Amino acid sequence: MDTSTNGPTTMLSADDEAARDALVxxxxxxxxxxxxxxxxxxxxxxxxxxxxxxxxxxxxxxxAATGTAPRYIREWLEQQAVTGILTVDDTDAGEDERRxxxxxxxxxxxxxxxxxxxxxxxxxxxxxxxxxxxxxLDVYRTGEGLSWEAYGADIREAQASMNRPLFANxxxxxxxxxxxxxxxxxxxDPPARVADIAVGGGWSAIALARAYPKILVDGxxxxxxxxxMARANLATTEVADRVTFSLRDAADPGLAGPxxxxxxxxxxxxxxxxxxxxxxxxxxxxxxASLLVADERVAEEFTAPGDAVERFMYGFSFLVCxxxxxxxxxxxxxxxxxxxxxxxxxAAEAGxxxxxxxxxxADFWRFYRLVK
Length: 372
Ligand SMILES: C[S@@+](CC[C@H](N)C(=O)[O-])C[C@H]1O[C@@H](n2cnc3c(N)ncnc32)[C@H](O)[C@@H]1O
What we know:
It is a single chain. This protein is an alpha/beta fold. It has helices spanning 14-45, 48-53, 59-66, 70-82, 104-111, 121-130, 133-142, 148-151, 153-175, 180-187, 203-211, 224-235, 274-284, 308-325, 340-349, and strands at 87-88, 100-101, 193-197, 216-221, 243-247, 259-265, 285-296, 354-357, 365-371. The chain has a seven-stranded mixed beta sheet, sandwiched between helices. Strands 1-2 form a two-stranded antiparallel ribbon. It is globular, with a radius of gyration of 23 Å. The N and C termini lie far apart (57 Å). S-adenosylmethionine is lined by residues 148, 159-160, 163, 198-201, 204, 220-223, 226, 249-251, 265-267, 270-271, 277.
């Protein structure tokens, strides 16, 4: 190996030095952020935040309340206070006497699963990804994939939890309300039938049924653990009589309609056979019905450097969605960064006559309406 590039032998201009120092600072901040997410993961998985939400706790009290080890909990609490996620009443008190509190303003972010501020699942997603580090190195060498199933519960549950607040708060009242003819059909008789494709944890189907009290929703997904999770989530709701979840491959040409609306949320880029799925979905549509696709709001074209959304989507793409979609062979190999023209091509190949980008405002998603 040529080691001449490893040492500080190159003469740097003032701009180069500024760029070097900026990168050092950026990576240090990234390390601090990574520690925050790892600590959040521990707090979330061990039920430390809900216990703190009940009132201020010392380390021994929190450990006793959560069945955890006091010495570890002391370290975790100190880290949380130092990083500013928890507050501490008296820094001078003995290490086992200090009381730690969860500030009011942080509760929604960490504990309220249907709040738009709920950001805790990001930690589970990132730690779930980190757990796959060695397998990711393998597939980057071999070109093989890593299936959704192989990523395990953390990624699957994080995915469902990250989108749940969006569905619960925005899907009916904002997004579908902004498409008057679809909104009207979902309120009309006879009760509309809706298919929610690649439904994951099921929160979109549940939110649809809650927003429109007449409709019947069939959610399907080919991942058995996701369907199990969706059914468990459904069992906690009051709409179980109008929602079903089935283990099905959406590319199966034998799927039966007709449906008055078909939805696909954040999943077309995950289909190894997107054209086959879109073709099967097209066959499910009743006359005049539409397919509503929500997928990532990435830029129309590759540009670098990109904005935060683009960076976020590339992050998920190179670590999750691309390896996931490459687990099938053959595969379209799309990845999270599915630009609008790529979907237009898939839709045309599947036989759709029209694709409109809808004027719905959403930070992370772009909405497309496809008609037969
Ligand atoms: C990123 S997740 C999105 C899940 C859900 N729509 C949401 O918004 O949380 C993608 C989902 O697509 C599902 N999926 C991928 N290919 C599929 C196929 N051919 N048929 C049905 N589901 C599929 C995966 O199992 C996974 O649950």
